[in-house]
Design brief:
alpha/beta, globular, three-stranded parallel beta sheet
Length: 90
């Protein structure tokens, strides 16, 4: 059986990948979350880490997220039109 190199819903993220993501967050000047409710720990843990390190966090999502309390900025907006508008202004 062949399986693509992705993590499906309900699966565990491989530890080396998690460690690499924590390293990236640790070296970041800011964290941008796009289109995620952060309802699952696998994503929320990076927001929590960034907040603990004092890294600014911006979240663009429709509706509240699990990371809103740690966010420096939240934008409740549809992702597609928001990113299209942003790209057209760059």
């Amino acid at each position: 059986m062949l399986k693509p190199d992705v993590v499906f819903f309900g699966e565990n993220v491989p530890r080396p990948r998690v460690d690499e993501c924590f390293a990236v967050v640790g070296g970041a000047r800011a964290l941008l979350v796009l289109g995620s409710s952060l309802a699952i720990k696998s994503g929320l843990q990076f927001v929590t880490k960034a907040a603990a390190l004092g890294i600014p966090i911006a979240i663009v999502n429709q509706g509240p997220t699990g990371g809103d309390a740690d966010a420096t900025l939240t934008l409740d907006a549809p992702l597609g039109p928001t990113l299209t508008d942003l790209a057209s202004q760059l």
